[in-house]
Amino acid sequence: MTDVASAPQDTPEFTGDLALAAFSDAGPWEVVPEELEWWRRVDTIRSVVQRQVPSLIRPTRIPGGRRLFEVTRDLGGAIAVWSVTGKRKGGTESKADLSRRLRLAAERLGPTYIKLGQIISSGQGIFPSELVEEFIRCRDQVPAEPFDVVRSVVEADLGATLESVFAEFDREPLAAASIAQVHRAVLADHITPGGGREVVVKVQRPSVSEFVHKDLRVMAWLAPFLIGRIPVAALANPPALVEVFAETITEELDFRLEADNMLDVAMSLRQLGQTAYVIPRPHPTLVTRRVLVMERLSGFSFDDVAGIKGAGVNTHEIVRTSMIGFLEGAMIHGVFHGDLHGGNLFVQPDGRTALFDFGITGRLDEAKRQAFLRLLMTGMMSDVKGQLAAIRDLGALPPDTDLDQVFSDLGLDQAPLDPTQLTPEELIEELQKFVKQLLGYGARLPKELMLFVKNMVFVDAAIGALAPDLDLFGEVAHIATYFATNHGHRLASEMGVQQSEIQVDLTSFKDSLGVDRSLESVTYEDLQARRELIQRRMADRDRPAGGANSVRRLGAAIRRFADRT
């Protein structure tokens, strides 16, 4: 339960629960947090879940049970077959072959590994493109549970028959994912005043919690053996990935935490005066560990660009509010939706964006929130040393890291290289050197930073689809002006500087894009042309790339984040 403070800006007058949170204009019920029995216990539930993680991933001797055999058989078999038949292909073709085999193995192993694949699938720029493209198939190819199984879970958790709670309940789900599936339903008249309220019911797969806990122990045992073994994992740091994954998936296993996340993000948006978002209301009483009943919202899929534009919606404004809302929630309140992708957002005809699926939500304690704030503000001011300090304080570098040494060793005091002017071999050598040095300092990617990077990758793709002609330099200046106008005094106070000292300097931003510092404007289309040029140069290499693509993509992501955010 996040304690949010009012933002220093005027907001429209709202009544009822609309004064509390960014809900739809006319909801099927009113949310009063203090009256929600499940809400009063979420702090304790969250604490218990978080305390489980270290024990689930603690190094042990060989974990017992048949599960270890199944995992090593499927994953080991996939790698072994690739070593014999696919490795010799070299380069992109080799990694594509391995990625396909790993995806098939994940599907055979079930929900935990499918969920890991889904997280990887939204990690463009963090993981190799071949792996990302292959695991995208895990997003919508998960078989649904039979209706009898769904019925049994709902009735067990709600303590009532399906027919006594719902006037209608669709047997076929709207969507089926690794942890749960969602069904359209209509509440019985006696459940909610007015009756006939259409809802969405999220139902957890039975026994998934038990399987996840077993799988995490197996993953933690196997992860050290994967370091440097295969190209797609060489730089992903498998043990650290397992830790971040464990922190993420364990919270998804209790829908009371997801409902709390919905409320916290909705309250944060309202307090910040953000009126361009809509969050579905969780039901006051129909929320349990495995069942979540919520208001049903609709709109255009975020991927339906033609439909959005056909409705007369300003796509530039969608992108702008997405960036501001995401950054503002993290900087000011320390809470943000942690899994933005096309399936989790609908654009309504009035231009507002409806957010769904809050199982993965970024939460920053006060120290990390201030570090995150400093990271973004020093990036806006082109203060690279300040960025390094903020990254350290966020947990990406050890507390005793010599930042001056890092600054020097990584060449951050020098003008950046233009990747389009390097040969493929030179580019790979530079990135390999950079990543090796960074990891040598004990660098890691904490959960919150991984979610931030994933969301920024999504925003990048959203700009490409919705506003490819958007002037990125002008947009950064606009966002900086927004924060200065609405939060300038608070930001300066928390950074320990005078408000007049906060000046926008796009030098670092231009460096991160690899463009000439003298450029006055650049669009996504311009950047995409540069990216395609670099990709063609890489593809023209004569010798097999081995782990080159993974080095290039992960290294580029780390560089964008770590030294030129």
Tell me what the structure shows.
The protein has 21 helices and twelve strands. Strands 1, 2, 3, 4, 6 and 7 form a six-stranded antiparallel sheet that branches. A four-stranded mixed sheet has the order 5-11-10-8. The chain has a two-stranded antiparallel sheet with strand order 9-12. It is of the alpha+beta class and 565 residues long. The chain has a domain of 197 residues. It starts with 41 loop residues before the first helix and ends with a helix. 52% of the residues lie in helices and 8% in strands. The N terminus and C terminus are likely disordered.
The overall pLDDT average reads: 83
Distance between the termini: 30 Å
Radius of gyration: 24 Å
* Biggest sheet architecture: 6 strands, antiparallel
The count of β-strands is: 12
Structural classification = alpha+beta
**In one word, what is the shape?**
globular
**What percentage of the residues does DSSP assign to strands (E)?**
5-15%
Low-pLDDT ranges: 2-10, 542-565
Task: Determine the number of helices (DSSP H or I, runs of at least 4 residues).
Answer: 21
Oligomerization state of this entry?
Answer: single chain
| Portion in helices | 40-55%
